[in-house]
Amino acid sequence: MSVALMWEARATEGRGPELLAWARDQKLVPAPLRRETFTAPQDRVLVITWWDAAYDADLPELADPPGDLVSRPPHRWRFEPQGEG
Fold it and tell me: Where is this region: Disordered (predicted)?
């Protein structure tokens, strides 16, 4: 079974590069099968990790960044793949 964890945060204005660097520095133990990091307008950072685990498994997740770095708490979601089509 597989599960993908999404973590998305919005940096305070102008601090997107700092939030991106912070997110990249966060180590997950154990490491996920796959990890991708994205950015979007308005200083948003998105991290998606893929795990060989059940949907409700106890998995490591990115922490909350320092409060002065973000404009709101991060959003977190879990998804299960449903195949092609």
Answer: 63-85
- How far is residue 36's CA from residue 14's CA, in Å, rounded to a whole number? 22
pTM of the model: 0.93
**Alpha carbon 74 to chain centroid, angstroms:** 9
Q: What is the pLDDT of residues 4-61, one digit of tens each?
A: 999 999 999 999 999 999 999 999 999 999 999 999 999 999 999 999 999 999 999 9
- How many structural domains compose the chain? 1
CB-side neighbour CA atoms (13 Å) of 44:
10
